[in-house]
Structures are given as structure tokens and as C-alpha cells.
Amino acid sequence: MDTKAEQSAVERSAIKKVAVRLVPFVALMFFINYLDRTAISFAGPNGMNDDLALSAAQFGFASGVFFIGYILLEVPSNLALHKFGARRWLARIMVSWGIVSLLFTWVGSVEQLYILRFILGVAEAGFFPGAILFLSLWVPSRHRSKILALFYLAQPLTTVIGAPLASLLIQADGLFGLAGWRVMFFGVAVPAIVIGVVAWFYLADSPATAKWLTPEEKTWLTGALEKEKNDTGSSNKHVSVRTVFTNGRVWMLAFIYFGFIYGLYALGFFLPTIIAGFESLYGTTFGVVQKGLITAIPYLPAAFALYFWSRDATKRGVRTWHIALPALTGALSIPLALFAGSPAATIAVITITAMSIFAALPNFWTMPTRFLTGAAAAAGIALINTVGNLAGFSAGYITGWLRDLTGSYTAPMFVVGGFMFLSCILMILLGRSGRLNDGSTVAHSGAPSRLRQHAKP
After folding, report:
1. What would you measure as the largest C-alpha separation in the chain, in angstroms?
2. What gap in Å lies between CA 432 and CA 444, rounded to an integer?
3. Which string of DSSP letters, residue by residue, matches 81-146?
4. Range 115-140 average pLDDT
5. Which of 219, 284, 327, 394 has its CA 20 to 30 A from that of 263?
6. How far apart are CA 309 and CA 366, in angstroms?
């Protein structure tokens, strides 16, 4: 076997081991993370709103205030992850949010709900960008889209599996003397604590410390990542932790991400409530588990769209249209759901929106590490996620406020479409400017183009 073929075999083996050993476990962590932060969407229409006397605006504020706490500690948490190591920091975050999630079981007033949601955001701060950074540190950029797509599958699958699971827990009304929605909060919190403890022992901080890699695989991964880091660093010496906050590319990506996250959480927090409203709108009647299953419907096709769209992006190289086209599709589809005329048609259109959002996100996250490395990458990814998560607060509060103000979800859904359309326009402009570069093939048209090596922010 010649040296090149032998190196290719080592590369395939190393990437496969990372995909099998790390991605499913980190995806499980993300699954629990997303389920815990969106558990309120299942609790609301299934007893919590009535028991705590919440209006739509109060429910929206409780949903969104999570992101205020999250945003305050996002960048510091990701810098701490870079300093102390992903294994320790991700495990610490997970146990912390699990303990806070458990306290929702006994929430007794709207004020307590606000406080716990805020503290939950503080506890979770840094997890998602930390997980993105962690996986990015394990594979070279040419494999990153595939690895991040496998990781991101956990998010739509959270609803596919989590919605029926949450509904079953809610049906356990009276268990331990608790209302069903309180049983649900208890049931989704405990796994976070358990898996957080396991993560401390299971994860490895880098390929060099992974006992499950062969010496050849360690050497190849470490060498490939170091070369990539040096190449990126030499052509982007101006990009440091300090200058990340004035870097034009970082802020452009942050605003693009804002539009996607606005759509994601508008659906995530209010879809169960919209489905519950089918009864008065269309005269239908669904049980708790049926509502959970209907809530899950859009997210299964979304998981397939995510996988196959990212597979195409890995094959071709991530192009501008891999992100801009889903943004445009989502922008046009979500307002159309308002005119669907039946529960089935409404869910069908919402499914298209969910597919659009999830198809774009893993490809989007390959962008920051094209021009950021080390602590600058930690800060940049955290900053992008911070601005994006402002949409998490905005989507919850504005959607609820507009629903109370207008008496329908018409205006809120047009706002969602508007933000996603803005993401589409910004992504096209960024692609045409040639300012996403590390020497990788990224194009705004069907033909590949070599982006400028020294484009400045």
C-alpha cells in the first residue's frame, strides 16, 4: 500500500471513529438541552398556563427571558471552555441546568417562572456554541459539515421523540401528587444531571488524549488540525479575541443567524399552542398524546432535509445558496400557513418551514471557523450565538404580545417570514462580497470560486 493510500485509510478510519464515538453522545447532550429549554412549550397549553393564570404575552415572556440569562454569560462561558477544556466545562454546564430544570417541578407563580427561566438561561450559557467548537476541534474543515449535520440531527429529533415523550409524562397526572405538567418537568430534568456526570468521564478534550484512537489516527488528526490552524492563523492575524467584536464578517453572520433562530423558536414555543387552537378554529378535538404527535410531524421531514442537504453541501463544498435558499423558502412558507384552511394543510406548510430552517443551520455553522481559530473562534462562535439568541427572546415575547394585541397569529407569522427573508438577503450579500475565506471553496453561484485570502472585515 503506498503512503497516500495508507494516509487516506487512516483519515477515513479517524473520521469514522469521531463520528461514531463522539457525535452521538454530544448529540444526546444537545437533545436533552433542547428538550429542557423548550419543555415550557408543552407545559403551557397542558395545564401550566391555567394553573399559573398566564396570558399569551406572559407565556411568551417566560419563554424568552431564558435567553437574557443565556446571553449575559454566553461569551464568558465559551472562553472558559477554551481555558478549562470542553470535557469539564460541558459536563459542568449540563449538571447545572439539570438542577435548575428540576426546580420547575415546584414553580408556584408567574414571578417564580420568570426567575427560573432566567436562571436556566444562565446555567445553559455556552453549551451550544461550546459543543459546536468542541466538534470543530476534532475534524478538519472539509469534514466539518458532515459532522455538524449529524450533531444537528438531535434538534429536530428532540421534537420528534420529545413531543410524544412529554405528552406521555403529562398524562401521568397525579404521580407523586403532582400535576401532569409538573411530572413532565421532573422527567426531562433528571437525564441532564445523569448524562452531565457521565460526560465528565466519557469525553476527551482533544485527539491527542483520546485512548480510542490508534497512534496513526492521533498523528493524522493532530497534524491536519494543526496545519489548518496555522494556515488560517497566518492569513487572519488581525482576527483576535478583541477584534472579533469589531469584525464585520462575525456581525453579518450573527444577523443571518438571528433570522433563522427567530423562526426556530417562534415555531418551537408556539406550535403546541397553535395546534391546541385547532379545536376552536376548525372544530377538531385532539387528546394530549395526539397533540404531541402532531407537534412532532414537521420535525421528522426536517431531520431528513437536514441530513441530505448537508450531505450535498459536504459533497460540493458549502455554497452561499446552501444557506440562502432555505432562508428564502422558510420566509415564503411560514405566512402561507395562515391561509392553509385545514389542520393538515397548516401542518404541511409548517413542515416546509421546519425543513428550511434545519437544512440551513449545520451548514451555517461551518462558516465562522473558516476565518477564526483558537480563543478567537470561541469568542466569535459565542458572539454569533449570542446575537442569534436575542431572537429566542424576541420570538417568544413578540409572538405572544402580537397574538394578544391582534387576537390571531397572522401578524406574528409575517414577522417570522420577514426576519428569515432578511437572513436570505444578508447571506447573498456576504457570499457576493467574497468575505468568507480560508482558502476553501465557497461560491455564491453554481460554479466554485477561490475566495480572496486576505479579505478584511
Report:
1. 71
2. 6
3. HHHH-HHHHHHHHHHHHHHHHHHGGG--SHHHHHHHHHHHHHHHTTHHHHHHHHHHTTS-HHHHHH
4. 89
5. 284
6. 14
Per-residue cell: 129: 456554541
Confidence at residue 3, expressed as pLDDT on a 0 to 100 scale: 54
The contacts found for 334-341 with CB under 8 angstroms, 24 or more apart, are 334/263, 334/413, 334/416, 334/417, 334/420, 335/413, 335/414, 335/416, 335/417, 337/413, 338/409, 338/410, 338/413
| Domains in the chain with CATH codes | 12-210+235-433 (1.20.1250.20)
In whole angstroms, what is the distance from residue 160 CA to residue 297 CA? 7
Separation between Cα atoms, residue 31 and residue 128, nearest integer Å: 11
Of 132, 366, 383, the closest CA to residue 243 belongs to 383
CB-based contact 95:196 (threshold 8 Å): yes
Q: What is the pLDDT of residues 240-284, one digit of tens each?
A: 567 777 788 889 999 999 999 998 888 877 787 778 778 777 777
pTM for this prediction: 0.72
